[in-house]
Write a structure and sequence with these properties.
- There is one protein chain.
- By secondary structure, this protein is mainly beta.
- The protein has one domain: Sandwich (Immunoglobulin-like), CATH 2.60.40.10.
- It is 13% helix and 49% strand.
- The chain has one helix and eight strands.
- The strands form two sheets. Strands 3, 4, 6, 7 and 8 form a five-stranded antiparallel β-sheet that branches. A three-stranded antiparallel β-sheet has the order 1-2-5, with no helix packed on it.
- A hairpin with a 2-residue loop joins strand 1 and strand 2.
- The longest helix is centred in the N-terminal third of the chain and has 15 residues.
- The radius of gyration is 16 Å and the shape is elongated.
């Protein structure tokens, strides 16, 4: 019985871990931006995986979103890109926010300086 409880505790801890953004590269390309975002998350399959990330301005307005269409169980951490993001002129920083299924949007964001 105690072994079952230990396994359940480990499973619950992994399920509660939000996706972690480990690296962001932002490149301006002719008036729009491309964001390359690296995420680490203990994906376990279709019921629990990092399923997206988005670019927000510093007021929380969504500027672009990248949907991740499948689990990355055997590819951790992983990097995906989003091009064509229109960032308002004069913007110096944006936020990147990751999401997982079933947990939803991570409460924390990663701030990115645009130079």
């Amino acid at each position: 019985m105690k072994y079952i409880l230990a396994v359940l505790a480990l499973t619950t801890a992994a399920a509660a871990e939000p996706p972690k953004i480990t690296k962001v590269t932002a490149i301006e390309l002719g008036g729009t931006w491309r964001f390359d975002v690296t995420i680490a998350h203990p994906d376990t399959g279709w019921d629990h995986y990092a399923d997206g990330w988005r670019v927000l301005d510093m007021n929380g307005k969504e500027l672009g979103m990248r949907v991740l269409g499948h689990p990355h169980v055997n590819e951790q951490p992983f990097t995906r890109s989003l091009s064509g993001v229109a960032v308002p002129e004069g913007t110096r920083q944006v936020q990147i926010q990751a999401r997982d299924l079933p947990g939803g949007w991570n409460e924390t964001t990663t701030i990115v300086d645009l130079n």
